TrEMBL record:
Gene3D superfamilies tied to this protein: Peptidoglycan recognition protein-like (3.40.80.10)
GO BP term, pick one: cell wall organization
PANTHER family: 1,6-ANHYDRO-N-ACETYLMURAMYL-L-ALANINE AMIDASE AMPD (PTHR30417:SF4), N-ACETYLMURAMOYL-L-ALANINE AMIDASE AMID (PTHR30417)
UniProt source species: Acidihalobacter prosperus
Compartment(s) of residence: Cytoplasm
Family statement drawn from the similarity comment of this UniProt entry: Belongs to the N-acetylmuramoyl-L-alanine amidase 2 family.
EC number, as in UniProt: 3.5.1.28
The name this protein goes by in its record: 1,6-anhydro-N-acetylmuramyl-L-alanine amidase AmpD
Domain N-acetylmuramoyl-L-alanine amidase positions: 18-169
Amino acid sequence: MRIDPSTGLTDAARWCASPNADERPEGTLPELAVIHNISLPPGEFGGPWIEALFTNRLPPRHHPYFAAIADLQVSAHALIRRDGELIQYVPWHRRAWHAGLSCWNGRERCNDFSVGIELEGTDDLPYEPIQYRRLAELLGALFAAYPTLSPERVVGHADISPGRKTDPGESFDWRRLRAELDKRLASSR
């Protein structure tokens, strides 16, 4: 997997442009990777609704939960589905609207300097092994394209928005991700 820093696109991802993005502050590079989870409706997987949310086409009447979120203008840079499919919504060098009110190491507005990666899942359901492998592969490609990112700069949404967000949740196995990352980084040397 490779990322072209000039376009911000990932060669192994299906592209689906989200309008919910803009330019980062001048001179700002990605410095932090934020792991999220999402499922729409909550706890259901595989439908078209995440893509619909990120492209402002979520039908508010289709499900009671959708009525409350259909008007949100949100996005992430990428989504890793339960089957490992990778979908990219925003070029990595642009600002996706994924973090909201947030703070990391005393810096507020994490959207300005972070990338957002969604895993299709919930806080309390184990993620699929293929999702960890795909996430490690993607993070390895991001580290290669943007040297300002590193394994020490990968956090959960809950870490930058404590008390407001809980994802990727207790079901996310950080040790497993670190092991997958170590394996990927060792093989790329």
